[in-house]
Amino acid sequence: MTQHLLDRRSLLRMAGLGGLALAMAPRLGGSAYAQSEPVDELVIDLASEPDTFDPALTYKIDGWSVVHSVYDSLYQYGPEGALEPLLAASGPTLIDPRTYEIKLRSGITFHNGEPLDVKAVATALEHILDEKTGAQIAGQFAVITEVKEVDPQTLHLVLSQPAPWLPAQIAAWLTPLPPQHVASQDWVNHPVGTGPYKFVEWNPGERITLEINPTYFGGSPKGRPIAKRVTYRFVSDASTRVADLLAGTAGLIRSVPVDQMEAVENGDGAKVLPVAVSGSAWVRVATDAAPFTDVRVRQALNYAVDVDAIREALFGGNGQRLPNFFPPGGLGFDPALAPYPYDPDKAKALLEEAGLGDGFETTLDYTVSERADLVEAIAGQLGEVGIEVKTQSLEDAAFNATWKDPNAAPLRYASWRPLFDPYTLLSLVVSNQGFLSRYSSDTVQPLIDAFASETDVAKRAEIGRQLGKGLFDDPAAIYLFNLTSIFGVAENAPPWTPRADDYIIATVR
Predict the structure, then answer these.
(1) Are 482 and 318 a contacting pair, CB within 8 Å?
(2) Does the pLDDT value for residue 282 go beyond 50?
(3) Residue 396: is its pLDDT beyond 80?
(4) Domain 72-179 is classified in which CATH homologous superfamily?
(5) In the predicted model, is pLDDT for residue 33 greater than 90?
(6) What is the reported pTM?
(7) H-type alpha helices, 84-151
């Protein structure tokens, strides 16, 4: 029998730790500091080390933080979740259902002096689609059949079919690359972008060092660089990150644990900064393995987990329980759709109807970088309705390699961000043919297909809400809560703007 760290009673006792109100700050620091000169150095403690500097192969938030400090995308999502031009000057403009027009900013150069032009965009796209690259997201760009150069600063993306979700993919992964640099050397390990910082060095297992790009274009929606030199350190242990902050050896840290918030706030001027980000946490439930083929069993899982008690105990009360994958402010979120309530009696009744009144055993996988206490709390609560759950932590590589493995655990804890447009999540994890999917639904799949092809914004939003209801009725997961990042910021840190996509980029808007 698996020993679980927390049951419901323990969670409710722990809830006495108290909550922390959610604060989405436009920047840290008063208006008097808005035009201050960059500090000499800012040290940032990340929770994990990036796997690569290749934008097409970066799938984790700490990796994105570093990559998007050096590279710029054509577009990004702003504080309110709206797509805004970054290296693009406007658009993307849909000039017909299968053609996007994108105009690039003029006068932008890469760190090595090469100009930003259409060829730089084409180079990046070719790299993503190259089979040798092995990008998991290549399928998201396969809809692009041609990059037409209208003039050096204007391009048309010609598509094989309508793809209203494509701009969201571009924002995350299509970072223009300097063609001459890419052709001449090992560009992945010597990255050259257009971003606010230039690459200096990578000491594996320790840190990545960047320096300011003094010619970064003014008025960038990404913001203005706040340090002449930025050192990203890889510190997996949360207590060590907090110790670094309190000792003054780090100016900004990721993921302050709830039980250490008070220590940070009582420290020498350091602050805790909770920031709502566009993402959600959930336990994926495979529908290709008994007894999860029965919708009643998947519904019972959702009734069995007291998400609000977990939020209070482990996350300081931040976030809110969700009825599906979609976070507030994201496409598909419907405030009128209530989440599953905590109802263990209802869960037991559904299991009884499904012929599982005596309970059953199953397994749940999660990565070593995720919180074991959260996973064990979920497993403990499932145990209270008769579902014995064996949990297993895996290294990231092993976890990512087994998403679709029918012999892997049918339950899988994950968090996903950003979710301004949930198409990537839906196409990979939920769709019948998804690269990472073990879920199939005759009612949900037609809605995914319609959501993927509808180009009218209002109609697509309505389809998204219908899709959210379909995922509620025919669950693909145990739906938990939207994500909140809790940063620790030193008193002498320069003004910094947190982002809704959760990248830590040393800039201020």
Answers:
(1) no
(2) yes
(3) yes
(4) Dipeptide-binding Protein; Domain 1 (3.90.76.10)
(5) no
(6) 0.85
(7) 118-129, 138-141
